[in-house]
Structures are given as structure tokens and as C-alpha cells.
Write a structure and sequence with these properties.
Number of helices: 16
Radius of gyration: 22 Å
Number of strands: 0
Largest sheet: none
Distance between the termini: 17 Å
Helix content: over 70%
Oligomer: single chain
């Protein structure tokens, strides 16, 4: 069955570099565009409102990361199952996967938006809002919540569209919203003087039009033919999809937990320094969102490699699976080296893009960027490896890797190191956690590659 399926699909026979290039580049662009929603808001808010506006958007940022977690749970999970089914020749099963995932997207988006509107103030308080930035954060977040259902559907559908062999269409869906957001941000903030509310409205208008483009693809799938009977919610199907998307999703949840713990640690220890509460918060928002641009490349690489890895693993072509992983890791090292150079040698120029501040603000923000992001050069390995395990249908190992950096190491380090080093301890936690997570990733991947070679020999 695998032999008859493989030649019909270019994922099974086309050269790996060509495939990864055609899938990863649109995926990277789409992921970058997704990250730019918040980056663009932060830049214009910084210029139009000031660093208090930036600290407010940083406080509300966990709402977006939770949204992304839900999107990856459904999108990566369904795309992984979709690719594995296609590789194994299970056409009808692939149709069920797509139909069920569309129902999951719509339901989760609506429920999440309602919960935010009901519990907004307690959530923002937990995320580290201060008395000075709460009004900004509440205004921004309440509007942003209206667009999160659109974002969940668009991001989830993008993964399925990519797995269906249309990476450029997936990219276009994200580009539509980003371009609209970038155009409308300065108009709403500076022309209409709407401040943080203007940035939020610009974002959700862009998200809505991206959503329209993504949902239009439902009738255009190339690998399957969706019928009304496929568009139904099944608990069994949903759990199977969630199991494969869990590692990527929980990685985002962990990022949210890190953000909450870090925000509260920075305000607590910052209040005991000359920097106060809001300068560390604003600096953290800039550093984390700047790093999100670098992470977007890694996420794009891992998502771009997922259809190739999943299809060939399902088809039993393990040598192509290994080649895809090695090439993705090589690309990640090249990209992370460029990121390391920018973060270490040009932090002032990067921070200046997000608005002006006094000398203390620049002093702490530059120190934050250089210290916390010192080991970004190895970050791609953990992220790509985690997604690799999800792509081959081994969610437990992917979940373990997702939790390694954020939950097992980074959060405890953020809580422990400041006891000895004060606010600097929060910054030192980043590179220490990065280094340990890299070593764990290398160990698990080495064992999996060895097992794959054994399977290959057994079949031959």
C-alpha cells in the first residue's frame, strides 16, 4: 500500500532540500507574519503611547500565547495525523481528521473568547499587571479577545493547508492580516488617536480577513474531498488529534507560564532596584517579542518539515525522515547564529525600534537582551526536535521535550536564582535552561535515530 502511494505524492520521492525549501519558506513567512501582529502593535504603541503602553501589551501577551497553544493543539495535531494517513494510503481517515479538526477550531475559538471577556481582570492581575498599566492592558485585551477565534481558525487551518501541499496559500492567509494590521495601526493610533485600542482594532480586522481566506480553502483541498458528513465533532477523533498536537501546544502554555512567573518576578525584584516595576516589564516584553521573531524561523522550519517527515515515516521511508531532520537542524543553526550576533552586538538599535525611554530603561533593556538570550544559538534544536516526535506519531517524547526547557528548568530557575542574584537571577535563568534543554534534545533524538536505523535494517 505504501509503495503505491509514495510515487503519487512528491513528498515521497522529490529531493529533500527542494521539498524543505518549498514547504519551509512559506511556513517561516507565515509564522513570522503571525509574530508580527504583536511586534507591530508594540512598535506603534511604543511610539504613540510610551513604555507604559508597551508594558501593558506585555501583560496581555499571555492571552495570545494561550490562543497559539490552542491553534497548535488542533493545527499541528490534525496536520500530523493528516500526513500520516496520506502516507499510509488511508484516504477516508484523512477526510475524517480534517472535518473533525475544523469543528474543533470553531468551538475552541468561541469558548476561549467568552472566557476572556468574563475573567479578564483576574487574568491580567495574574499576568503581572500593575496599577499604572492595568487600564491600558484591559482596554487592549478586551478588544483583542474578539479576534482570537479568527486567529485560532486561521493558524490551525494554515497547518492543514500546508500538509495538503499548498504552503503558499497558507502563507497568503497570514500575509493578508499582517498587511492590513500594519496599514491600520498608524492610522488608528496616530490619526484617530485611539491609542492601545486602535492597535487592538487594527489587529482583529486583519485577523478577520485572514480567517476568510483560510476558511475558503475548505472547498479547495487537493488530497481529500470533504463532504458534509465529515464536518462533525467526535470525542475520539479530537483526543487523537490533541495527543499529536499536545507537545507543541503545551510548549506555548509553558511559555505563558514562564511569562506570568517572569512578569511577577520582575515587578517584585524590580521594585527593590532603581528600575522600579514598569521598566523591567517593558524590557521583558520587547526582549520576548524580539526573540519570538527568531523562534518564528524555528517554528516555520519545524512546521515546514512536518508534512515531509510525517508522510515518509508513514510510508516507511526512514532515510528520508532522517535527511529532513538533519537539514532542518542545519538551517536552524545558521539562523540562530545570525540572531545571536544581532542580540549581542546590536541590542540598542533593536530596542530603539520600540519607542524611547530614559537612560535607566535602555540600561536594563540592553542588559536583559544580552543576558537572557545568550544561548539562543541552540534553541532551534529543542523546538524542531519536539515537533519531529509529533510528526512521527510519538507525542509523549515530543511532550517531554516541550516541557524540558520551560517547565522543568526555566520556571524553577526564575524562582530560585533571584534569591542569590536579585533581579539578575531572572536573566541568568534563560541561558542555563537553554543549555540543559539542548543536551536533553540531543540525547532523545540520538536514541530515536538509532531506533529508526534498526527498523530500516529489519525491513531490508
Amino acid at each position: 500500500m505504501n509503495e503505491t502511494q509514495t510515487p503519487q505524492n512528491p513528498l515521497g520521492f522529490k529531493s529533500i532540500p527542494s521539498l524543505l525549501r518549498s514547504f519551509a519558506i512559506p511556513s517561516i513567512i507565515a509564522t513570522l507574519v503571525s509574530s508580527l501582529y504583536n511586534i507591530v502593535d508594540q512598535v506603534f504603541i511604543g511610539q504613540g503611547v510610551g513604555y507604559l503602553g508597551n508594558s501593558a501589551t506585555n501583560v496581555s501577551y499571555p492571552l495570545t500565547t494561550i490562543c497559539l497553544a490552542l491553534s497548535l493543539l488542533i493545527g499541528i495535531g490534525s496536520a500530523s495525523r493528516f500526513s500520516l494517513c496520506l502516507g499510509a494510503g488511508e484516504q477516508e481517515k484523512a477526510e475524517q481528521v480534517v472535518g473533525n479538526s475544523i469543528c474543533m477550531m470553531l468551538l475552541s475559538g468561541i469558548v476561549y473568547a467568552v472566557l476572556i471577556e468574563i475573567f479578564l481582570h483576574p487574568m491580567l492581575t495574574a499576568f503581572g499587571a500593575t496599577s499604572e498599566n492595568m487600564a491600558y492592558a484591559a482596554t487592549y485585551s478586551r478588544i483583542i479577545a474578539l479576534g482570537l477565534p479568527f486567529q485560532i481558525v486561521t493558524t490551525s487551518m494554515s497547518s492543514l493547508i500546508r500538509a495538503d501541499g499548498s504552503p503558499k496559500y497558507s502563507m497568503t492567509c497570514m500575509l493578508i492580516g499582517a498587511i492590513l494590521n500594519t496599514i491600520l495601526d498608524p492610522i488608528f493610533i496616530f490619526v484617530f488617536n485611539l491609542g492601545v485600542a486602535g492597535a487592538a482594532w487594527a489587529t482583529i480586522i486583519g485577523q478577520f480577513f485572514s480567517f476568510l481566506a483560510a476558511i475558503a480553502y475548505v472547498r479547495r483541498f487537493k488530497s481529500v474531498r470533504l463532504e458534509r458528513k465529515n464536518l462533525r465533532l467526535s470525542l475520539k477523533e479530537s483526543l487523537q488529534t490533541a495527543s499529536l498536537g499536545m507537545s507543541n501546544s503545551l510548549n506555548q502554555v509553558a511559555i505563558t507560564l514562564v511569562q506570568i512567573v517572569m512578569n511577577n518576578s520582575l515587578t517584585y525584584y524590580g521594585a527593590r532596584t532603581i528600575y522600579g516595576e514598569d521598566i523591567p516589564l517593558a524590557s521583558c516584553g520587547i526582549v520576548m517579542k524580539t526573540n519570538a521573531i527568531l523562534l518564528a524561523f524555528f517554528i516555520g522550519l519545524s512546521q515546514g518539515s512536518q508534512p515531509i517527515v510525517g508522510f515518509n515515516y508513514g510510508a516507511g521511508q526512514y532515510s528520508r525522515v532522517r535527511k529532513t531532520y538533519r537539514l532542518a537542524i542545519t538551517c536552524s543553526f545558521v539562523i540562530s547564529t545570525i540572531g545571536f550576533i544581532l542580540f549581542q552586538f546590536f541590542p540598542y538599535q533593536i530596542i530603539s525600534l520600540f519607542g524611547k525611554g530614559d537612560a535607566l530603561y535602555y540600561e536594563f533593556a540592553i542588559h536583559f537582551m544580552r543576558t537572557f538570550l545568550f544561548l539562543v544559538i541552540v534553541n532551534g534544536v529543542q523546538l524542531i526536535s519536539s515537533n519531529f516526535f509529533a510528526a512521527i506519531g510519538k507525542p509523549v517524547k515530543g511532550l517531554l521535550l516541550s516541557m524540558t526547557r520551560q517547565v522543568f528548568f526555566l520556571i524553577p530557575l526564575i524562582l530560585i536564582l533571584p534569591l542569590f542574584f536579585g533581579i539578575d537571577g531572572v536573566l541568568y535563568a534563560g541561558p542555563v535552561a537553554d543549555g540543559i534543554a539542548f543536551l536533553v534534545s540531543v540525547l532523545l533524538i540520538s536514541l530515536e535515530m538509532k531506533k529508526m536505523r534498526s527498523m530500516e535494517k529489519a525491513e531490508n
